[in-house]
Design brief:
With 476 residues, this protein is mainly alpha-helical. It is built from 19 helices and two strands. Strands 1-2 form a two-stranded antiparallel ribbon.
Length: 476
């Protein structure tokens, strides 16, 4: 929602200059509508560019495939219906890369930087909105903060590209090696999962340099800018007082849960696929492949193992990880580990009979707890509804015995789209046009956030002061 607030702030000041009436502003440029319109506009522009004959190596993409690819790129998902490396020309690949970068950093970041570079000054309200997105408390150096966000992003992507260039330089000519390095570094940091190889990185299972570089980029992109900046300040700013260098509750929660989920994911893949997709690999490669899939499963979508050949229990385990996602304020999707952390803290408090929800010796506000519950509930509804519709369009009303594990594969694709992960069992390219459009809507919802969509379509967030007499409902 901070993205919505900031963009509405910009248009509110620009409205009189472009002659936009107050009625039109309230109807189309209201805070609840603006983020949806902005991302939709970027997707539309990407669709038109990808439909150009110069964007493909064949006869051109259909509007459905172009729309799906543009949405997947802007929403940094990685689900594909055409092969990025062979079906798209170099121009088409540059379009996808640009859409990934814009979607990963977010429209708000670019808008803010443009205003700062043009010499504009942010009002007090503008500063408050930016603080809501990138900080957890007051910060009077917002211009410097936003510049650090972009600088940190460019540095990490450049370092990743340099390391990947060491691998690709021995495989391709310098120009092609540089493009491959840049493309995959940006795709990894933005947690997009787009790859120029038909089978992602399955051909690099035993390549420690590529696996570790991609994994580190994905993790840093999934932590979020706030966590990265606080961690850098905590580790390297020795001149800053220790009290100031302490990590916030947000950063502690993201770091601890990320480490926990990475460990659980690695152990899960080792357990479920030890004799399956990991069966032919030596022990060091098994550990690396399991760790790599644990990293990419919650957010990025790259793979070194074939998910189409995995056991059903592994797919269901992966669905759970994809639904959670990574940190809030990051380039990743899902309900976010912050939501999971708040829900776990709430469950612990209620099981102990405690009214207050405490974590790290701090009490969470009722607004934060309520938001976490709402995000979780709305996300379940979105996934449930999308899966039902997709099952109807792709399976009809045929008995389950005739469809094998297609239901599980369709559920896998829906959660992958909602979590903007991009992993696939191979079903997505075979979907009908209606099925692809359903996933487009799910990706769009997952990227902007289900609450932003609901508020954007049905009204603004309101504070209701009216209270009625208390009542009780039996639970459990």
């Amino acid at each position: 929602m901070p993205t919505v607030k900031f963009l509405s702030l910009v248009t509110h000041h620009l409205r009189p200059r472009f002659g936009v009436s107050r009625l039109a502003y309230r109807r189309w440029l209201a805070p609840s509508h603006l983020a949806i319109l902005t991302f939709a506009g970027l997707i539309l522009a990407g669709t038109l560019l990808l439909m150009l004959p110069a964007a493909s190596t064949g006869s051109g993409l259909s509007w459905v495939d172009a729309l799906f690819t543009a949405t997947s790129a802007v929403c940094v998902t990685g689900l594909v219906v055409v092969d990025t490396g062979t079906d798209l020309s170099r121009f088409g690949q540059w379009v996808v890369l640009l859409l990934i970068q814009c979607g990963g950093l977010g429209i708000m970041t670019f808008s803010t930087v443009f205003i700062l570079f043009l010499g504009g000054r942010l009002s007090f309200l503008g500063r408050t909105v930016i603080q809501d997105t990138f900080t957890h408390g007051p910060d009077t150096r917002l211009a410097s903060l936003i510049k650090h966000v972009l600088l940190l992003t460019l540095i990490l992507e450049a370092l990743g590209a340099a390391l990947l260039f060491l691998r690709f330089a021995g495989m391709y000519p310098p120009g092609q090696a540089l493009f491959y390095s840049l493309f995959h570094a940006i795709s990894a940091f933005c947690n997009a999962g787009f790859c120029l190889y038909p089978n992602s990185f399955e051909g690099f299972q035993q390549d420690f340099l590529l696996n570790l570089t991609i994994a580190v980029l994905i993790i840093t992109g999934g932590l979020g800018f706030l966590v990265l900046m606080e961690t850098r300040r905590r580790l390297f700013s020795r001149r800053t007082p220790l009290k100031v260098r302490r990590l916030s509750v947000h950063s502690k929660m993201v770091l601890i849960l990320t480490l926990l989920l990475l460990t659980v994911g690695t152990l899960g893949f080792l357990l479920f696929e030890w004799h399956g997709s990991l069966g032919d690999l030596p022990l060091p490669d098994k550990l690396m492949a399991a760790f790599f899939q644990s990293v990419t499963t919650r957010t990025a979508g790259f793979n070194t193992l074939d998910f189409g050949k995995m056991a059903s229990i592994t797919l269901f385990f992966t669905i759970s990880l994809m639904f959670i996602g990574a940190g809030s304020g990051s380039t990743a999707g899902g309900i976010k580990v912050n939501t999971l952390g708040v829900l776990l803290a709430l469950s612990r408090a209620r099981l102990r009979g405690e009214e207050a929800v405490n974590i790290f010796h701090r009490t969470l506000s009722s607004a934060v707890v309520g938001r976490a519950i709402a995000v979780f509930a709305v996300s379940l509804v979105v996934v449930h509804a999308a899966t039902m519709v997709l099952v109807m369009t792709e399976m009809g009303f045929t008995p389950q015995a005739q469809n094998g594990k297609l239901f599980l594969e369709l559920l896998f694709e829906v959660v992958s789209a909602f979590g903007t992960v991009g992993l696939s069992t191979g079903v997505t390219p075979t979907l009908s046009s209606t099925g692809k459009l359903i996933l487009v809507l799910v990706m769009f919802t997952g990227r902007l956030g289900p609450l932003a969509i609901v508020l954007g379509l049905f009204g603004k967030e309101r504070k209701v002061k009216l209270e009625y007499g208390e009542s009780s409902v039996m639970i459990g």
